[in-house]
Structures are given as structure tokens and as C-alpha cells.
Specification:
Helix content is about 35%, strand content about 20%. The protein is of the alpha/beta class. The chain has two domains: about 160 residues, Leucine Dehydrogenase, chain A, domain 1 (Rossmann fold), CATH 3.40.50.10860; about 140 residues, NAD(P)-binding Rossmann-like Domain (Rossmann fold, 3-Layer(aba) Sandwich), CATH 3.40.50.720. The strands form two sheets. Strands 1, 2, 3, 4, 5, 6 and 7 form a seven-stranded mixed sheet that branches. The protein has a six-stranded parallel sheet with strand order 10-9-8-11-12-13, sandwiched between helices. Helix 6 links the parallel strand 9 and strand 10. Helix 1 runs antiparallel to helix 9, helix 4 crosses helix 8 and helix 8 packs across helix 9. The longest helix has 16 residues. The structure holds 2'-monophosphoadenosine-5'-diphosphate (ATR). 2'-monophosphoadenosine-5'-diphosphate (ATR) binds next to helix 5.
Length: about 300
């Protein structure tokens, strides 16, 4: 990794990291380290396998060692809400933390990212929790499928952790109709209730659109189906035909063309996988830590070559 950077790791090098379990598959170090080098920062981005019962200790360790920030992935995003000192509005709005920024007071007394302080922090350091996943969904849909969400009709498959944030973000962006389909129907019902309460301008329905020839603007898969070769299709094609969806987004990004996306390509839909979401949540985290625009094209290329090099 050091050949990316002008200088080898030294006593002044700063660190950030991703915590998750499992973590070995993570593409985040491969995406962030070239970006840090490009920005000319003497920082490194690491990855650690952290179990949920050790998350608090791992966050405290990072704080004690003046890490700049941490990304959190499965299964830590909900747990972290209770473990940080302060929540950014993004974390309270979406109910999950995927990015922690360690902050200290600058000379004017304002809390500032350790990554943006001119000198090493001497006083108290606080952990601030952010959520960059929700914005990443909207950005990926816009950048990869050219979608504007306001007024659109969306069929969303999955009401787990990722599906919930997607549904709430889509509603916040002014989607007109959301059809929520989930294996465990009670979760879709609960989510529809939350949307009715928080975003009443969006009509939330549980289940597929009533008529099989009803058109929608976007089909979004937020289930984990498609990750494993033996997985069933997340869509029941007897209830909804892909010919009624001009655009299909699959949050799964490995394989690059999931069985759902292959079916959608055959039906001439515009398609994109979830790599863009991973990219944008990382780019937003980097911007919070550094205060600088993320080198997005470089990050996308690095991520693609890391994830798809064996395909
Ligand atoms: P994540 O945080 O990635 O969303 P999750 O909260 O476990 O993970 O959600 C996984 C999603 O995939 C859920 O919508 C889940 O459906 P249930 O809520 O019924 O569990 C869906 N899913 C996983 N395996 C599935 C399967 N074999 N068939 C149908 N849906 C499945």
C-alpha cells in the first residue's frame, strides 16, 4: 500500500478505519487509500473485524489513539447510535450511524474534525455519528440511472435495514408511491406505517401494485437475494413484469450483473448495481473527515478493480 503514498507510515500518520463482522470482503480500504494519497494526506485507511460486543471498546480505542474517523458496516449501524457522544442530524433522521468523525475544539472553540485541525488535539475528543448511506442511495440513483425521485412510483423489494433507509430516503425525496414487498410482511407493514406518519405526501402500499400491467418508474432491490449463486430472484414475476419498469437498481453489487439485473437487461430496462451506493457513502464520509471534495472518479475505478478483478 505504501507505494501509493509519497511518504511511508511514520509517527505523524493519521488513521481511519472500517469496523464490521465479517470484514474481509470490504472494498473500503481499496477505495479510500488511493483517495487519501491523491489528496496528499499522510493518512491510512484500515479494516478491522470487530464483534458487536466489542464495538464500544473499539470506538474508545480509536478515540484514545486519535483516529480521524471510522466507518461502520454490518452489524454495527444501529448499535453505534448509543455509543457515540453526539449525533449529526443525518443519523437522527435515518436512525443509523455508518460514519463516526472524531472531533476536538479548534482555537475558536468550535468542534472540528481531527482531520482538519492544524495541530494534534490536546483537549477532549468527541465521537460524532453521521449517516451517509441515505444520501448515497439518492446520489447513486441519480448518477447511475439519471433518476429524479420527486413524483415517481417505486417498487421496493426488501424492508430490512437497507430497505428501511432506502424507503425513508425515497419518501423524503418526494416519491409519489412506494410499493413495499418483503418476505416478512409485518416488516413492510411497519415501514409503511412509519412512512405514513413521517412522510404523508408519499403513498405507501404493502405488496405488489394491484394490476399486473401497472407501470412504475423504478424497481429497487434492497434484499440480500442475488449475493449467492443459489439465491431465488427477489422479484415474483407472476405478480410484476419487468417490462413495466424502465429502470432497475439492485443494491447487490457482487456479482456485477445479478440474476435480477440480467433479467432486467433482457427486458431492456436501464440498470445499475449497488456499487455506486458504496462509492457515495464512502465519498461523503471522506468529505466529512477531510473537509475536501472526494476524488470520486479515482475512488470508483479503485473500487471496481478491487471488487471485479476476479470476475
Ligand atoms: P440489510 O441490513 O442488508 O438490509 P437485513 O436487515 O437482514 O440486512 O435485511 C435483509 C433483507 O433481505 C430483508 O428484507 C429480508 O427479508 P426478511 O425481512 O423477511 O428477513 C430479505 N431476505 C433475506 N433472505 C431472503 C430470502 N431467502 N427470501 C426473501 N427475502 C430474503
Amino acid at each position: 500500500m505504501d507505494d501509493l503514498f509519497q511518504n511511508p507510515i511514520g509517527a505523524a500518520t493519521c488513521f481511519c478505519a472500517v469496523y464490521g463482522q465479517p470484514i474481509r470482503h470490504s472494498g473500503s480500504p481499496a477505495m479510500h487509500n488511493p483517495a487519501l494519497a491523491k489528496l496528499g494526506l499522510d493518512w491510512r485507511y484500515l479494516a478491522f473485524e470487530v464483534s458487536p460486543d466489542a464495538l464500544g471498546q473499539a470506538i474508545e480505542g480509536a478515540r484514545a489513539m486519535h483516529f480521524v474517523g471510522i466507518n461502520l458496516t454490518v452489524p454495527h449501524k444501529l448499535l453505534a447510535i448509543e455509543l457515540v457522544d453526539v449525533l449529526d442530524e443525518s443519523a437522527t433522521t435515518w436512525g443509523a450511524v455508518n460514519t463516526i468523525c472524531f472531533e476536538a475544539k479548534n482555537d475558536s472553540g468550535d468542534w472540528t474534525s481531527l482531520g482538519q485541525l492544524p495541530n494534534p488535539a490536546t483537549g477532549k475528543i468527541r465521537a460524532k455519528g453521521h449517516n451517509t448511506d441515505a444520501d448515497a442511495i439518492a446520489l447513486a440513483l441519480r448518477e447511475d440511472l439519471g433518476l429524479r425521485l420527486g413524483g415517481q412510483r417505486v417498487l421496493l423489494l426488501g424492508a430490512g435495514g437497507a430497505g428501511r433507509v432506502a424507503a425513508l430516503k425515497l419518501a423524503a425525496e418526494g416519491v409519489a408511491e412506494l410499493h413495499l414487498v418483503n418476505r416478512t410482511v409485518a416488516k413492510a407493514e411497519q415501514l409503511a406505517g412509519e412512512i405514513a406518519e413521517r412522510f404523508p405526501q408519499t403513498k405507501a402500499f404493502v405488496g405488489y401494485p394491484e394490476n399486473t400491467d401497472d407501470k412504475i418508474d423504478l424497481l429497487l432491490n434492497a434484499t440480500s437475494l442475488g449475493l449467492k449463486p443459489e439465491d431465488a430472484l427477489p422479484l415474483d414475476e407472476s405478480k410484476f413484469s419487468l417490462s413495466n419498469a424502465p429502470a432497475v437498481f439492485d443494491m447487490v453489487y457482487q456479482p456485477a450483473v445479478t440474476p435480477l439485473l440480467a433479467r432486467a437487461n433482457n427486458a431492456d430496462c436501464r440498470t445499475a448495481n449497488g456499487l455506486g451506493m458504496l462509492l457515495w457513502q464512502g465519498a461523503k464520509a471522506l468529505e466529512i473527515w477531510t473537509g475536501q471534495p472526494a476524488p470520486i472518479d479515482l475512488m470508483r475505478t479503485a473500487l471496481e478493480s478491487h471488487i471485479y478483478c476476479d470476475e
